[in-house]
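Exercise 7.
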Amino acid sequence: MSDFNQVKKQLNDVGCGFCLAKWSQVTIHLLNGTTHSCHHPIPHKIPLDEIKNNPKALHNTKFKKQQRKTMLEGGRPSECDYCWNVEDNSNSFSDRVFKSSEQWSFDQYDTIKNLDWREDYNPRYLEISFGNTCNLKCAYCSPPYSSKWAEEIKKFGPYTENHNFNSLDFVDNRIDSTYKLTDENPYTEAFWKWWPELYKDLHTFRITGGEPLLMNDTFKVLEYIQEHWEDNPNLSLGINTNLSVPRHLIDKMITICKDLTENNKVRELIIFTSCEAAKEQAEYTRFGLNYEQLWVNIHDILDQLPKVVVNIMATFNALSVFSYGDLIERVFEYKKKFHNDVRYWEGALLLDTSYLRYPSFLSVNILEPEHKELILESAKKALYYGKFENGYGFSDSQIQKIKRTYDYALITNNVDMTYTRQQFAKYITEYDRRRETDFNKTFPQLKEFYEKYKD
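Solution. The predicted structure, written as tokens, is:
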């Protein structure tokens, strides 16, 4: 469905908090046995006793069923407050609408709204994370999603600001335990038991991480699809990767993707990567990234895989505002160069913008009003490039997502942000010390801001 107003109306006919993603979509983190439907709510634990006899409980936990019950009865689950913030503070559409409007999800509207909340439901969209092995330490990430982050925290301890996102004690208490890739993992075992049945019903399957290309299970599941593709030739396959791993792994992925796409073993294949700034500012935020090498790898994928789309997931944060326009220009350059008839009308390269909420001291909320106006300038630049009629501009939804980041930033214009800004400064000071970086040199636009709140 592309009529977002109509989708919102039909959702609200069921309840003001009704979202199809609670049934049709799921992300499962096998490393620690957690799950969530949609990337905004904090993942919750999957009890081992629930998956012992029913591997479908990787998605259909008792906790999640209670959230479904709330939605069907007209309530708004508190864990979905990202969307409530958007809907209550702007005229933009929330992800409740965007996610529910996906045709593979909206097709299930009548079935889901009439479903008993206690029933299991096989998702149409599955994201799976096999582990947290990763070679980057992005500023806004944390140990459950990056082994490099975990190594740093073990060496130096948690950062000194008053936030738990990088505390191993907090992480262990919240998720109970984690499993190394070499461990016997009951969650991974449940996945492989469920997978042959689930694979046949999936519309979209997406592999996430950590960094998936560093994990053997990633290539195991891709090889399964190569061999059993006739069970689901209409699968939409997505692979997350930071595209910063050793080149032989990029080449291995390209080889498999070429077989899958050229021999029509999947309906479509999208490679998801991440970037939310440009040049040295991107490298500062996504520590370990080589920005130009990222674009070399994107170029080679688009050049060698003419049926593949690359989607850049931008986690827009306080360090994005000054170079996001440069990122938009580079994306448009590649859209234009690699556009062809078999790719999306927006081009071979997409830019999907969401705003960072946690940790709060890195969100756009902490910035001064003049900094926030730069977000709107980025939206205007994308809007300008969206006017091109040759099929490779920015779509309305891509532009809307930048604009809603601006709307979100304005929420705190009349709020005292002193404490959160002080936490930002403490974090940056410790960040520079541990990683031997130089914030003031990299972000001269924020030097005065940083110095003001540092002491």
